[in-house]
Amino acid sequence: MSSRYYITTPIYYVTDAPHIGHLYTTVAADIMAHYHRMLGQEVWFLTGTDEHGQKIQKKAKETGETPQGLADRVVQRYLEAWKVYGIEYSDFIRTTEERHKKVVQHFIKKLMDSGDVYLGSYEGLYCIPCEAYCTETQATEGKCPDCHRPVEKLREESYFFKMSKYVAPLLKHIETHPDFILPESRKNEVLGFLKGDVKDISISRTTIDWGIPMPADPKATKNHKVYVWFDALTNYISALGPLDKNPKYEQFWPEAIHVVGKDILRFHAVYWPTFLMALGLPLPKQIIAHGWLTDSNRKISKSLGNAIDPIALSKEVGVDAMRFFLFREFVFGQDGEYTKEIMYQRINADLANDFGNCINRVTNMIPKYMGSNAIDVDSYLKESSELKTVALEAVPLAQKEMETFGFQRALENIWKLVSGVNRYVENNAPWTLAKSTDPKDKQKLEQVLIHCHESLRIATLFLTPFIPSSAKTAMKFLGTEWDLSHPAPLKTQLTWGAGPKAVTVTKSSPLFPRLEIPKE
Ligand code: MSP
């Protein structure tokens, strides 16, 4: 494992406030950033906003703002949402910032000088919402193959990027780096595309004003702006600062992991790597594509009119409950149908009934049956029990899943431990053992309680990146905050018996009260 970790989200269009789909990508990256910090790695976590291009220009016209005014207003909504959700990014980049524009222009100039960007002309069908051209055959009935909205005919003098030149090297890279694109099914889509007829792509626009100017060129007859996807993708490097002798770039760029939705995988897994190859720069380490949250099997999105406001959801069910639900319910690489009913059921079942209830029961019983002084847990933990067996088996599996963004299966494994505690309590009935006068029963009672406590300590520690604030509170009741102050708690404290030797447990208040499912 490298000592550094660099994770990015896509940068979001500032046409509108964030919705649950944007929340999904951002929380995924935040969980991974948090998890890797808790593994003791030095983490850089980048997010931001995509503020140029036709889409923004068009929207600003509709709202009667300048494009910059629109961006300045909408970016606040992102900052606000990420604050509510406790997103701990290291940097937030906006593509209208000088530091970004400089790098974009530097890259384009370099490609013009090397001949990989050349002047030509282009006629094609263009989808403004997707900011992408498509062919006549792709555009059935004049509709975009991706979003099914009408395409427009555009003819432009244009700069082209010699993408075709880099197809073979990219195929080779994908072959020799099997984890470059995950999951496997999405990788195959990219391979399918690369094995088709890949053409050079248009890299500039003359039809928009709102963009970064192409470098001056006496051959050009028009005023060209840099294609918004070239502009946007560059953020992953421009945010690290200037390339020359920049330790942040040198340390973090080789570790880059891009988290993206499946709709923008091609831009990240084909366009971006070929741009980088042409620039002579190393490729990111990995690109992870997730599925969509859907509503009646349609992508949830502002333009389809079914967007859901993340801040309203946080008020309704709570920040941690939302963070947990999104990654316990849906398999990361696949689409997932979102309904309120599924959300409430999941939160009530897993957080109120299982996790919250376990914490409550165990932190209630320990002071009641063992007193409220510090308890030396060491000798109890040496004993064997079914919970100890589950912990030793399921936790490494959960850790393994996290290596490939397998959030859902990771949590499933941790839940073997959490629901195991409830079952263990039922089967061993501490309240009956407590009534016995036999010293063996007293010994058994204490062992049962401490094994439950240890299981919950481990589960809570693992859950910290998912439900940061509730986990911290739970650790306090368990008397094991000590774990969290450790420099690499997920590396050193997650095994059975690795926590503090003595704990002082206090009765908890409910962590996740049961939610009433609203009648709509
Ligand atoms: N600006 C580009 C990205 C440039 S990255 C160099 C963009 N922006 S976006 O705001 O339209 O979308 C950003 C991300 O949100 C994408 O990864 C997209 O997949 C994700 N989501 C938008 N709606 C979504 C769902 N309904 N479900 C899950 N994620 C979805 O594309």
Percentage of residues in DSSP E strands: 5-15%
Described by strand count, sense and barrel closure, the largest sheet is: 7 strands, parallel
List the bound ligands: 5'-O-[(L-methionyl)-sulphamoyl]adenosine
Anisotropy-based shape:
elongated
How many E-type strands?
Answer: 18
From the N-terminal CA to the C-terminal CA, the straight-line distance is 49 Å
The helix content is 40-55%
* Low-pLDDT sequence parts: none
Question: What do you see in this structure?
Answer:
- It is a single chain.
- The two termini are 49 Å apart.
- By secondary structure, the protein is of the alpha/beta class.
- The chain is elongated.
- Strands 1, 2, 3, 4, 8, 12 and 13 form a seven-stranded parallel β-sheet that branches.
- Helix content is 50%, strand content 14%.
- It has 21 helices and 18 strands.
- The longest helix has 31 residues.
- Helix 12 crosses helix 13 and helix 15 packs parallel to helix 18.
Sum up the structure in keywords.
520 residues; alpha/beta; 7-stranded parallel beta sheet; 4-stranded antiparallel beta sheet; 21 helices; 18 strands; 50% helix; elongated; binds 5'-O-[(L-methionyl)-sulphamoyl]adenosine
